[in-house]
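Appendix B. One record, verbatim.
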Amino acid sequence: MASLLNLASVPVSSRNFSSCHSPRLSYSSSVTFPRRRGFYVRAAETDTNEVKPTAPEKAPAGGSSFNQLLGIKGASKETDKWKIRLQLTKPVTWAPLVWGVVCGAAASGNFNWSVEDVAKSILCMVMSGPCLTGYTQTINDWYDREIDAINEPYRPIPSGAISENEVITQIWVLLLGGLGIGGLLDVWAGHDFPIIFYLACGGSLLSYIYSAPPLKLKQNGWIGNFALGSSYISLPWWAGQALFGTLTLDVVVLTLLYSIAGLGIAIVNDFKSIEGDRAMGLQSLPVAFGVDAAKWICVGSIDITQLSVAGYLAASGKTYYALALVGLVIPQIIFQFQYLLKDPIKYDVKYQASAQPFLVLGLLVTALATSH
């Protein structure tokens, strides 16, 4: 659950380096606890002269409306508020969380192609993807607005295309919607203990401390990237499995191990934002170790993790599943040498588009192995 998740991307906003001289935002934000009402997030603009509600002059030329709706690099300018809201949730990042639910349902061994089970799984996907991943991405963009003012000043928040109050409202609606769906799924599944609701709460909290000060886990490349990986892989899997069955120790261990591969995936996204991260003091691994060392850390975490899982499956007597997983690692290694190790900044998108489908299929192979 991405926020549960989020668990993302992922965050996962795309950034470029051509906008270093664009206007910088000067905001400060705080979490306030009023005396009689629940806590709320209040953002205060500290310098009204520096930020204007107009898009910067140098937006990407020839931007795509399709990219805008997906929330990825190359997006066109948009004035429709609902399209801007959708862009902030980065729909392109929902897929891993949705797939995580599929893997969890498969690992339970109890999913049936009945109308009820399909409806439950779809609702769980809505919770993990649009709601909690959308919450994660929106709050990440909110707390990254100063970095985006350097890397992508034309994005909705730094450009002023959407107001502070509208962003805060969206964060709360998505968060409460995701938590509400989690509670509903527990009731629907007949759980005595509301495990899905608590997973949603845990993932949402993880997403918050990943992006927000004072902890802001993303400031530390190791901790932040592992938190991101676990929220993208472990949490939605656990939710899907808990919905139809019972979480087991081997599943918890395997999914947390896979989160190390998620750490590597998160590093791929860090290569695009080196300049902004360095300017804001964020110690992403490419900033801390340099591009050359970081790309090998990235490759190692992705490959060693999957090969370790294959070894675990083989030792458990599930030889065919182990061989299938190794077969899915091989094309990933090929694409790593073809794209990622050659130039991780230039070919990050090509690498993810070509290699990550094999990693995702490997997750399903592992899920099916644990269900038998």
